[in-house]
Every structure is written in structure tokens, then in C-alpha cells.
Amino acid sequence: MGSISAYQTTSGKRYRAMFRKPDHAQTQKGGFKTKREAELFLASVEIDKSRGAYIDPSKSRVLVGEWLDAWMDGRADWRATSRERARGIVALHIKPSLGGYPLGSLTHGTVQVWAGGLSKTQSPSSVCKIVNVLSGSLQMAVKDGRLPANPAHGLNLPKVGKPAKRYLTHDEVRDLADAVDSLGKGMYRGERNNYGLLVKVLAYCGLRWGEASGLRVQDIDFARGRLEVQHTIVEVDGVQLDSEPKDYEARSIPVPASILAELKTHVEGKEGGSPAFAAARGGWLRGRVFRRGWLDDAASMIGQDGLTPHELRHTAASLAISAGANVKAVQRMLGHASAAVTLDVYSDLFDNDLDAVSAVLDIEIARTSSSARASAISEGPQSG
Length: 384
Hints:
Oligomer: single chain
Number of strands: 10
Order of helices and strands: EEEHHHHHHEEHHEEEEEHHHHHH
């Protein structure tokens, strides 16, 4: 079980507990004021060892800030944008308050107080994202044998409400596209940019911005009437990087014939590897440039101030569902990981489907009842 020995300090007599770790290496812990405290510590060590829950004190002395850096460096599964986002959260919201704590001294109460403080300056959704970053790093510390449990689990966090989504109608999409094309008369340095057509592609095909920016001329399959999503442009520290979408995000999207005809005229004479919608000065079109130069003003012109490219993706889902598309079709069009994700994001759009189901059932009930009555009348009373 270990042994206990006494020693003298300037503050008086203290006790040291000597014991072996699960790997049989000998170690010690001193500073106990009474022999009883040292005995209780040894007993707890033996219990933890028997349960496989022993934590080496030396491994839990690493500072939270240092552990966060090591954890992020080890996340080989992250995309560049995810890494940049996590580093920003760690630098701005976690390290200033918790970075100086040793892992082993970070308690559930300490983390709860920190999380509560975030709510004073951050929205509920931002609080949850920040806490999730810390919790992910601490969960890895548990797996690495540095913590017995994750002190960020089970926190009382603000409830995240679902923000109301904005969906444009067909007429509004047309007016927005016309407004975009009217700015600068749709021209830059004597050439048409056709950004109004880009609005239609976003609103009817549901591309993410990075996918629309990374769309190449060769990705438009005119024979099949499809957009092949095979690339996405991500921006990290101001630098645009060509990346591949996740497996479930790579997809083939049907294009309405009228938009396909416009695309054919738009890309005529362009090289296959060039952007379908290039920046005004060439290269990949940046989202903030498109918004500041065209979309923001055009949206104000049609009474839709603050409209974002992502809301055009929402519009694509809305228009597809209103046209009769089922959840699986919308999932494939948008590149969601599963139909459950689509239902969760756009559950409000499928409410009308439920009304339609009840209406169809009511029609069938009435039809069946009428048929039964007609049959009974035709048979008439049976004579003996």
C-alpha cells in the first residue's frame, strides 16, 4: 500500500506518502500536516488504482493554456478554417481566464463561473461554442490520463434559441439578381461580371459560399444539367486556400434549365479550370467583397437589408420544398450529413407538408366513406 515518513520543515513537522504508480514506478507526495491525512491519501490512491482511475499528479500539473496548445496541434482531423476558429476562441476567451490553471486544479465550479461570465458579453450560441472548445480539450486530457473526469461536462449554459430564417420568394430572387446586375451596370472594367446570375445559382442550387467561389467552369455539366461540387475555397488569415469538401458535401446538384442556359452563355470561351464567377480583378471571389460591392446595396434596394449569401442557401431549401422536394432530395442538394440534419435545420419548412398530409388523408376518408355508402345503397335490402 505504500509507506509514510515524517520530516521537518520551517513550518513544523510534515508527512510524506511513498507509493507505486500503476506502472510500478515509485513516487511520493509530501506536505501532509498529519499522519492521518497521509494515510487517507494512500488509501484513495489504492482505490483509484483498483478502479483504473488513478491520475499521475505530475501529468495533471501542466497548465491549461499549454495543454490547449498541445491539443490543437494534435488535431490532424481539423480543416484549416476549424483550426483558425479554435485558435481564436482559445486566445480570446479561454487562456485569459483559465490558461494559468494547472489541469488538476480545474474544478467544475471554476469552469461554471467562467462560463457564466461569458454570457455577459457573448450570445448563447457563442457561449456554447466557446465551452465546447474547452470541453473537447479536457476530454482529451481525460483520455490521456491527466484528469479523472471532464470538469466542463454538465455545465448550466444559456439556452440557444433557433433564430428565425429569412427565405426569399421567386419574385424576390429575380428582383435581387436584377438589382445586383444594375450596380455598375453589371460591368467592371468593360466586362460583365454576371453576379446577378451568381445570386440565382445560390438561391436555386443551395451552394455554400466557399463552394460557389470555388466552382470552376469544368464543374458545370451541361449535358446532365448539374453542378459538380468538388472544390471549396476557404480563407485562413486572409489567404484563400483551395480545399476539397467533406465526403457528404461533395455532390451533384441539378440546375434549372433557364439558369443552365444563362451559365452556358456566361462561361463561353473560359478555360475549364478558371472560376465560374471570378473576382472583379481575377481569382476566387471573396464573400466580403461580393457583399460590400454588390449584395448589401442590392438587398437594400429590394427591402431585404442585411441579407447574406447563406440566406440564399436557406432560400434554395425553401423553394425546393415548396416545389414538392422531399427531405432526402433537399439533403442531397444541400450536402448535409444526414436527413436528420436537414429536418433539424429546416423543420419549419416541413410544417406545411404535415398540413398537406392531413388534407390528403381527409380526402381519402371522404372518398372511402362515399364509396361504402354507394355500395350499400346499390345492394339494397336483401329479401328472404
